[in-house]
Amino acid sequence: MMRSLWTAASGMIAQQSNVDTISHNLSNVNTTGYKSQRAEFKSLLYQNMQTRTTTANGENKPVPAQVGLGTRIASINSSYTQGAMQSTENDTDFAIDGDGFFAVRGDDGETYYTRNGCFFWAMGPTGTTLCNSDGYPVLDSNNNIIVVPNGVTSGNMRINGDGQIGYMTAAGAYVPMNQSIGLHQFTNPAGLEKLSGSLLAVTDASGAAMNEATTNGLKRSNVRQYYLEGSNVQVADEMVNLIIAQRAYELNSKAIQASDEMLQQANSLRR
């Protein structure tokens, strides 16, 4: 059987995964805090045609004779570049200007991370709590739940550029709560495990979360109230990548057709 059949088939499978990734980017172009992904490829095994290649005079050539056996997806990387700031005039919308991540506590008690700062005030066991759209409470810099003090409405809550939380009194005075929204950074954010609901989980590849409030040497992120961070998907780039992937898929299918025609020619030989 001709190697080119399986080699071209691996190329078609890889390009299908590439199109899947591009489609996922385009479908999340309006998802708050979404980070675009890019498929990376690597070659498969190489078959040695000649382990020692020589000239007609028996002298060694500088290169061997090897035939590649196709390609496959090596990884799907996320680009954590800053998304555009979108004004919302909603007092529970927050955007991160920097490399930080918000922290939320899941139903299983584990801490998860997100760039999606579309939060809400919701009633919880301890009072009115700042939560994400799934009802997971947002954590402060000490990994505590953020709760509105008694007698204060959510509309009077204020958060400054350092994430410090306070509230305005009826007299117009600002009262700090000695609490700030928790922001965390990672050595390798691309290594975070992606979960549903724009959540991310820590892995060995990402490294442990580094609290910006307690870790020295980190460039602090800023929290922008009344803003959300849009996705960093560039539609024009994705459309170009889609065309390239489609053409690559087509070329690999042409290689399969050519291999099939060559086999047909070989089968039709007569003595």
Question: Main attributes?
Answer:
2 helices, alpha+beta, 19 strands, 271 residues, single chain, elongated
Number of strands: 19
Radius of gyration: 27 Å
Biggest sheet details: 4 strands, antiparallel
Give start-end ranges of low-pLDDT stretches.
none
Share in β-strands: 25-35%
Which bin fits the share of residues in helices?
Answer: 10-25%
- Tell me, briefly, the overall form: elongated
Total discrete domains? 2
- Element-level helix/strand string: HEEEEEEEEEEEEEEEEEEEH
Structural class: alpha+beta
Strand order of the largest sheet: 8-7-14-17
- Discrete helix count: 2
State the distance separating the first and last CA atoms. 22 Å
pLDDT averaged residue by residue: 88
